[in-house]
Specification:
Radius of gyration: 52 Å
Strand content: 15-25%
Mean pLDDT: 79
Number of strands: 22
Number of helices: 23
Low-confidence stretches: 1-52
């Protein structure tokens, strides 16, 4: 920005009233009273703090008197004032040698203020334009000293060659007397001066045929040797690197977070990288020094485009931070103007875009700075959280810019601070964004903690829901949670179903109070449910004292094996429960268990306001009928022929066939088996000992040999009078002996049961 200010100043000649007026207005708008801290005539060096104010000497009619200037204490000096000026002459040191000059100047010297442009300069009633060539000469009277001095020339728009006491000390481009001879280049020169006593003669040859501004427009500084060691180039390297790192960091933030705050990081990161690129092509022109083969048109366009791109990027950044205060239409206008000027820079020659774009865009930028202040004030008025840090950084940058503008215009003698002010501005904006991200991080932490609490609560709720709707049931419906279940969801599955209830439950609870009934029922169910769960099943329903459980099996074990193993464990647990009841003086209870295997529909039934899960199908109905038959035959566990066939190894279980049963609601009889526990006492042992006779007798029964079958059943009862199944068949045989069934093909030997 400092280089752009110099360009503006030089464009308006030796009397830059426009720049002065804009600077003063801008100063009053931004930091008016704050300028009191930088009083005119002061200068700070890196060596020590000034104890007194000292005015910088200026050259007068080609002579600069520095005999009262102490470089060790007062620091380096920017040379300003009047130089000897020789238009259209490229003079060399020997042309001024005394007393026998080889070629004396053709004209008497004129004096021209520097730094400044020769554009518009009245030279013998000739108003000079930008093109041409000339020589500049300055005699410097030095104080007695032992230090080695260096010079530093930068921000020179035109080509030049510099001599000091007869020795060429540096050049930029190729100086020529025509556009064909001259080669444009922008660079900086830093060189140790030849040893001298009390006087130093500086001669500059300057030509310009490629830029809109001609003349000696750069900075010319002289200082002690350590000025070279601690050069602005190192400072610019540091600033460029630091700003680039900040830019890349914010781009990385955007890559991981792309909401509104992320967009602010994107625009700020691009803005920082643009400024870093601009630092490479202005000031010390590091890019040109490191890559001298780069063509003039390339880095010159980069210099302009970086300026034209930085403004809209800053606007986008401010818009993303204060979207409510920054009007969108203004932003669109800024982007359009910046795009227009960038297009001109890309498509036209350097002389054209330098002549017609820089000044209008600079005025446009000043207007945007005022608008940026307006947006910031609105944000402050609205209590925006980021307005304070944004405004602080902006104020520091504005103060630095104004300081350097006023320094260039010789209103004050403070050091140039724009690079450091800009770094402070970037740091403030980074802090603002970091605070936003930190606040977001804290919000995320709070939300995470809240989410953990909610998840824990949901887990508790899910566990509670699973007490009503088993998780296994949801899995069978292909649902992840209860919230996904809808009315009418259903699926067809091949499974085993278990029904069990307490025999004579009503009679048992008649003497109990309602509270005691609930306590008894919950106590019993707590004994039974773990047996179901441990064998891969789940309880679908508790219906009073009845339990309905489902088993789905897996690749290693069938659902029938799971259900039968659970049924046998439930009988073992019943023995444990009865033992505990006996210790409390309570009567024991008995249960019946019916198992069936086959296809069934699982799903939801009900209405929009009330849902329930259910399992329907003949398989379920058959299991319920079998459970009822356990009381008729006094068989603890009955399984269907379908379950029997689904067992991997039926021989592993103690069971006996009890024949074919035609239950109510079915047209075809179903084979039924009684499953026994070998450790359940004499009754089970006797049943297994007579299982063969029972099977033979049932076969005779099916063959209508009722008398012969009855005889075998009576023999079984002689050995085991408690065998209710043998008693049942004995009674059936007597009935058929008295009244034989019809002699037709419909006889199957199946026992019709009228129980539900």
């Amino acid at each position: 920005m400092l280089a752009d200010t110099v360009r503006l100043r030089n464009r308006f000649g030796p009397c830059p009233y426009f720049v002065k007026a804009v600077s003063l207005i801008f100063c009053l708008l931004l930091i008016g009273p704050a300028l009191a801290c930088g009083a005119p005539g002061t200068q700070t060096t890196s060596k020590q703090k000034p104890s007194t104010q000292k005015t910088e000497p200026r050259a007068q009619q080609g002579v600069l008197d520095l005999r009262d200037w102490n470089f060790a204490e007062d620091g380096p000096l920017y040379i300003r004032g009047e130089w000897e000026f020789y238009w259209r002459e490229l003079l060399e040191p020997e042309d001024f040698a005394e007393p026998n000059a080889r070629r004396a100047p053709r004209t008497a010297p004129r004096w021209i203020p520097t730094p400044g442009s020769w554009n518009g300069y009245n030279y013998d009633d000739q108003i000079l334009g930008e093109e041409g060539f000339a020589s500049f000469r300055l005699r410097i009277l030095l104080p007695p000293q032992e230090q080695i001095l260096t010079i530093h020339v930068d921000n020179q728009n035109t080509n030049f060659r510099a001599y000091a006491n007869g020795q060429m000390i540096g050049e930029q481009g190729v100086v020529g007397v025509s556009a064909e001879q001259a080669v444009p280049r922008r660079d900086s020169v830093r060189k140790q001066l030849p040893a001298t006593a009390n006087e130093l003669e500086i001669i500059l040859q300057i030509s310009n045929f490629h830029d809109r501004i001609g003349g000696f427009t750069g900075h010319f500084a002289i200082g002690p040797e350590d000025y070279l060691a601690h050069s602005p180039r190192e400072r610019e390297f540091f600033l460029c690197g630091g700003i680039s790192i900040i830019g890349l960091y914010h781009l990385a933030l955007f890559a991981f977070r792309r909401e509104r705050r992320g967009k602010a990081a994107l625009y700020f990161g691009l803005f920082c990288l643009t400024i870093a690129v601009r630092l490479l092509v202005t000031g010390e022109r590091i890019l040109v020094q490191e890559f001298p083969e780069l063509p003039f048109w390339f880095y010159n366009r980069v210099e302009y485009l970086s300026f034209y791109a930085a403004v809209p990027l800053f606007a986008l950044f401010q818009y993303s931070v204060f979207p409510a205060e920054f009007h969108r239409r203004v932003l669109i206008g800024i982007l359009a103007v910046a795009g227009f000027f960038s297009g001109i820079t890309l498509l036209t020659s350097a002389r054209f875009y330098d002549a017609w774009t820089l000044v209008p865009y600079a005025i446009f930028t000043f207007a945007l700075l005022i608008y940026a202040i307006y947006v910031l004030l609105r944000a402050l008025w609205n209590g925006h959280a980021d307005a304070g840090l944004f405004g602080l950084g902006f104020l520091v940058l504005a103060a630095g810019v104004i300081n350097d503008i006023l320094r260039i215009l010789d209103y004050i003698q403070t050091p140039y601070v724009v690079p450091f002010a800009f770094f402070a501005f970037i740091f403030a904006q980074s802090a603002m964004l970091a605070r936003g991200f930190a606040a977001a991080f804290h919000d995320v932490e709070d939300l995470s903690q809240t989410l953990e609490e909610r998840n824990a609560e949901l887990s508790r709720m899910n566990r509670s829901f699973e007490r009503f709707v088993p998780g296994h049931f949801l899995e069978l419906l292909n649902k992840d949670n209860i919230a996904q279940v809808e009315l009418g969801d259903s699926t067809l599955r091949h499974m085993s179903v278990l029904f069990t209830d307490i025999r004579s439950f009503t009679a048992i609870t008649e003497s109990m109070s309602p509270e005691e009934s609930f306590q008894f029922l919950n106590e019993y169910l707590n004994y039974m449910e773990p047996a179901i769960h441990s064998h891969g099943g789940f309880v679908d329903k508790f219906q009073g004292d009845a339990i309905m459980a489902l088993f789905r099996g897996d690749d290693e074990i069938s659902s029938a094996d799971q259900a039968l193993a659970a049924a046998l464990e439930m009988r073992s647990r019943l023995d444990q429960y009865n033992a505990q009841r006996s210790e409390r003086g309570l009567i024991p209870i008995d249960t019946g268990i019916g198992l069936n295997t086959g296809d069934m529909m699982l799903g939801t039934v009900g209405s929009r306001n009330r849902l329930d899960t259910t399992v329907i199908g003949n398989t379920v109905n058959m299991a319920s009928r079998l459970e009822t038959l356990t009381a008729v035959f006094s068989c603890p566990v009955l399984i269907s022929d379908f379950t029997y066939k689904d067992l991997r190894e039926p021989a592993d279980f103690a069971m006996r066939e009890i024949g074919a049963i035609l239950v109510r609601g079915r047209r075809e009889p179903v084979g039924v088996y009684e499953v026994l526990r070998e450790d359940s006492g004499a009754d089970a042992r006797l049943k297994m000992e007579t299982a063969g006779e029972l099977l033979f007798a049932i076969a005779q029964f099916k063959a209508r040999a009722f008398e012969k079958a009855r005889t075998v059943f009576e023999e079984i009862l002689t050995r085991n009078p408690e065998d209710r199944l043998a008693q049942f068949y004995q009674e059936q045989c007597r009935a058929f002996e008295a009244m034989p069934p019809p002699d037709n093909a419909n006889w199957t030997g199946a026992i019709e049961m009228q129980v539900k």
